[in-house]
Specification:
Strand order of the largest sheet: 1-3-2
Order of helices and strands: HHHHHHHEEEHHHHEEEHHHHH
Distance between the termini: 48 Å
Number of helices: 16
Largest sheet: 3 strands, mixed
Length: 384
């Protein structure tokens, strides 16, 4: 409700903020959250790290417990030494990790005060209404989880200390949930609350994503190096050479083509030169999304590629595809098509830039939040 959500994987369900504004206007409701929105947004812009506090509510059993702790934290000036008990000191220290300055604490105080007023004037009654209207969805999600999917995942949950805990269904969330893992007895996963029974499985998907995602990402980041990526690619190349009747695709990583050319350099310079010629013609990522690749989804929305559905260029029901594609009305698309588009320093210095084109933009944005950052899956990093 405070910021435009344009991230690759949105923080909240797209259109949620607009829906809430429409409903409140119909009910003629104006809250302190509306009155203080500009002020709250301004501080969030100055300190974007405040968004990390979105996980804070998962550490509290009730809204009342959270508001009381925030009040204690603000009155103590964020200093655990001002507490009268060890429990209070721990609570103050917990919030101090997210709200480190006086300005941050003032923002928190105003934000919680505004949310409390929003809840009493509108949201609490809306939430109760939605629970009643979606009770059949809640029952179906619970049945799917308890009878079908939890038994299949139980061994994994046991081994990762996630056997016990709570699963919460949240109206603002979509494909990206929120998780808090504190050990065997205290885990919370918050997931999307589907609108229709036919979409109940979407909540299960987010549960699985949240339960597995953090552990899997850590394992990959901790254990897969660029050298190991190249080693796997070399095995793929050997296989493809031994079985030419099998078509092998390594998808959506422009650096793979360069890895192939370098592998051929040592084995067949003539084929390596031909590979480089074709890679240069294709231009890697420079000739990819928004340039030589596009995606039209089931609604008619046009996207730069199938991995960038958070960027919509137009709709073929409203405008011919040729006009949408040639116009390139968004700043991002104009940058993608520009000869001097933003580029990570690592890519600017890479001798293979003309062949790779700078890596996959969607993956870079997903991993870092910056669409112009280096592709974290580049296999050329640290390669001679």
């Amino acid at each position: 409700m405070l910021q435009e959500d344009t991230t690759f994987v949105p923080f909240f369900r797209r259109g949620y903020s607009t829906d809430m504004i429409v409903l409140k206007n119909r009910a003629n409701v104006v809250s302190q959250l509306d009155a203080n929105r500009d002020k709250l947004r301004a501080r969030l812009t100055l300190n974007p790290q405040l968004v990390n506090a979105q996980f804070v509510p998962l550490s509290f059993a009730t809204w009342r417990e959270l508001t009381q702790t925030v009040d204690l934290f603000v009155r103590a000036g964020g200093d655990p030494r001002a507490a009268s008990s060890q429990g209070q000191a721990s609570a103050i220290a917990f919030l101090a990790a997210y709200f480190q300055t006086g300005a941050d604490r003032d923002w928190l105080r105003l934000f919680v005060q505004s949310l409390d007023d929003e809840s009493s004037r509108f949201y609490h009654s809306y939430w109760l209404q939605q629970q009643r209207e979606r009770s059949n969805v809640l029952d179906l999600v619970d049945t799917l989880w308890q009878r079908t999917y939890r038994p299949r995942m139980q061994r994994f949950l046991n081994n990762t200390q996630q056997a016990q805990g709570s699963i919460l269904l949240s109206l603002p969330l979509d494909g990206e949930g929120r998780s808090l893992t504190n050990g065997k007895q205290s885990n919370t996963i918050t997931v999307t609350f589907p609108e229709r029974p036919s979409d109940a499985v979407e909540a299960i998907y987010v549960i699985a994503h949240e339960a597995v995602g953090g552990i899997a990402s850590t394992a990959v980041n901790d254990n897969i190096t660029p050298e190991q990526r190249r080693e796997v690619l070399h095995r793929v190349f050997v296989f493809a050479e031994a079985f030419p009747q099998v078509e092998v695709l390594t998808v959506d990583n422009p650096s793979d083509g360069v890895a192939l050319a370098r592998w051929l350099d040592q084995r067949d310079p003539e084929r390596a030169a031909r590979a480089r010629e074709m890679l240069a013609w294709n231009a890697g990522a420079r000739g990819g999304p928004g340039v030589g690749i596009g995606c039209v989804d089931e609604r008619g929305d046009v996207h730069p590629d199938q991995f960038s559905r958070h960027r919509t260029l137009g709709n073929i029901r409203e405008m011919p595809f040729s006009e949408i594609w040639q116009t390139g009305r968004t700043e991002w698309l104009q940058q993608m098509r520009s000869e001097d588009r933003p580029m990570a320093p690592m890519c600017q210095a890479c001798p293979e830039l003309a062949l790779c084109g700078g890596g996959m933009r969607a993956r870079a944005e997903l991993a870092t939040g910056d669409p112009w950052a280096a592709d974290p899956s580049c296999s050329l990093a640290h390669a001679a």
